[in-house]
Amino acid sequence: MKTVFAALFLTAAALPAPQQAAVAGKWKVNANIGGTASEMDCTFTQKDDGALAGTCEGEQGPREISGKLDGKNVTWQFNTTWEGQTLTVIYSGVLQSATKITGRVDVQPLSVSGDFSATQQK
Question: Does 114 map to a domain?
Fold first, then answer.
């Protein structure tokens, strides 16, 4: 019995770990927040631990982002200003395929939300 358990343990230990999904690169993000459509171009860099960094550029210019990829769950955020108030825009989505992310976007502290989709650009 010990031999069977040891063999199973060694076999499982020899299997490669599941590969982390990749979102590094350029993405076109389309959002509808509170009835207002927007589009921006984001460039993500990704570390081995899933941490995301990069920039998203839209009408107000480039914004530095921070985020995380955890399995197929992708989150990123950035700060911006509107009428003198600092806002945090938070994207929370799911990697639907290697080239598509869909999810929700929330603007805090205004508690305004909407949907987004992102498509990886070549």
Answer: yes
